[in-house]
Amino acid sequence: MRIIVVTQHIFPxxxxxxxxxxxxxxxxxxxxxxxxxxxxxxxxxxxDFQQKTGIVVKPIPIRxxxxxxxxxxxxxxxxxxxxxxxxxxxxEFPFFEFYFRIPKLLKNENDxxxxxxxxxxxxxxxxxxxxxxxxxxxxxKKWIADCGDPFMKNGNTKEHLQFFARYEKMxxxxxxxxxxxxxxxxxxYYPEFREKIRVIPQGxxxxxxxxxxxxVKNTVPTFAFAGMFYVDIRNPRKLxxxxxxxxxxxxxxxxxxxxALLVDYVEKMQGKLIVKKLxxxxxxxxxxxxxxxxxxxxxxxxxxxxxxKLIDYGIAGRPILDVDPQNPDYEQIEAFLRGDYSMALKIDxxxxxxxxxxxxxxxxxx
Length: 366
Hints:
The chain is an alpha/beta fold. The protein contains twelve helices and twelve strands. Helix 5 (about 125-135) packs across helix 6 (about 165-175).
């Protein structure tokens, strides 16, 4: 099959959607498909990757905001980007640019069997829908719109103007399938399109035989969080306020790209909180395996979303403390600090997240 994938990010940037896209194109190529991927690339040299995998990598030439949208994190967000972002965020700036750029790219591509568009941002799907309407004769025979988080019904109803619901409905109407990572996510899409929805979880290339291998208990409770914090839906403040009051010694490692919500607590916790930048996933997994337990902070008001880091946590094989950011269970946190993991979150059926099984589900659709 000749497959074209359109996404915002691929490696080397470390984000759930970049990992999703990268693992997907690599496994499709391993299975003998001819793969072309469009992404916002930056300055990274993909020539060696293309030669080894046979995957053709092409740029999406965005102009409205060059950072932080590049796949390698290169570039600098200019003053005008920040100003325009504040003024026009409600009008989907800068992501609305994908609506215009993607049709110009797809009109030059012919004889593809399958298109897989990957969100977020959902504006990528919008651009593909516009391309299908403008260039129907040369549009790929099958279109799969892959979605991480929902758009209009994402649990934060004030985030998007109701006007843009028409664009979500447009792509849902034009695509052949909508893929979501968990069953509950179906409820976040308009009822008239739910028959198109298929559940395909996040996929990773990992060795199941290495899951849950023995670890050496740390001298003091040592635990970690890896991922992003958000003021509105994933705010760690109540958890950190509680940990500031704990007299027991411990070490809490946080691996994150943005640490603005943590700055005040580093000094308060006097060495108990260690904040580090995100590192390559393979290196991070080895660190997670050495922890006594791992921390997941739920997405407040977003039951239709599942942080992909939970899969990495499951692969690491350590107990998971699942924290509600608005109403933490302090007794549960105390129990974990004592080494009682009886209330740990369980991640079942890890095999479903192996990239081979994930791509097999995509292949069933085409």
